[in-house]
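Ligand-bound model needed. magnesium ion.
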Amino acid sequence: MNKNITVLPGDGIGPEIVAEAIKVLDKVAEKYGHKFEYTYVDIGGCSIDKFGVPITDEGMEKCKNSDSVLLGAVGGPKWDNCPPAIRPEKALLAVRKELGLFANLRPTKLFPQLADASPLKQEIVGNGIDLLIVRELTGGVYFGQRKTEEVNGELVATDIMPYSESEIERIGRVAFETAMKRGKRLASVDKANVLDTSRLWRKTMHKLSGEYPEVEYSDILVDNTAMQLIKNPTQFDVLVTENMFGDILSDEASMLTGSIGMMPSASLSSGTLGMYEPIHGSAPDIAGMNIANPLGTILSAAMMLRYSFDMAAEADAIERAVNEVLDESYRTGDIMQEGCKKVLCNEMGDLVAERI
Ligand code: IPM
Ligand code: MG
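Prediction:
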């Protein structure tokens, strides 16, 4: 198959980790007879420096016209004081919105080889963690109206959190379908004891659950979810939630494994176009040092093959290669353990590519 991939390396360690994912994709193409063509586009701080905006209109068009998008990371202290309209993160939100990437899949998996990295006790994570957060990505408070105005002599800020039934239903459907392909358990996370958006969320999810009798469905409040993720994370299979709750809970969940550098993500639209990125940030403190962990990005490339290109065998091959490299005790600095072999970012990419 021929596929056009828009590559957004971004800032900080973005370019280094993306280069390793491309190395692995090239190996997959060679091995399985595909042709992947890459179009590079600046995003985030590097684009602000060059063009004065976090992504150009042409860059956005290229993303829209490709088969899929691979992203490194955006942002860094250099751009922290940019005005809100041109902050690096703004580009990320714009790409999500313009490409209609409403469904964000964030798998949290404890690799048995890295079990010691989890900050939780063995009795809690001993049986492994394998949960998936389905986060709504183009609605809610991230995209509602916001303003800061002076009222009675002081500043008052407002962020509106709107959700429509159709927005809730379409993310709900993704969650139920995903649960059907996994452990058939779905927990819907909300704050229905306080928020109207959550009451509508719950009502809509209940309606949908009637269509998926095989899925064991439950409602759980977001504060309780935060607690349960630490207390008993193995109770969860798939979690579905709105944009901001999902942002917060997915960071919490990633820490259960102790290795945020390993975690991939997929942002999906109603078609096959998706954007794939590791969930960690741009790590400016180690940028350019060739010590970052590229596995989260490499595993994101695997998700791209699986979800956007329907190449399950190829995705399996990448995931298997990552497991082999870990079994053989190769580790980047962030996941280094006693008795293991410490490797650089580019060496990790080579090791995975060699095993495809
Ligand atoms: C994420 C990030 C983004 C978000 C930021 C960078 C805007 O934290 O992808 O989780 O809040 O969605
Ligand atoms: Mg986040």
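The radius of gyration is 20 Å.
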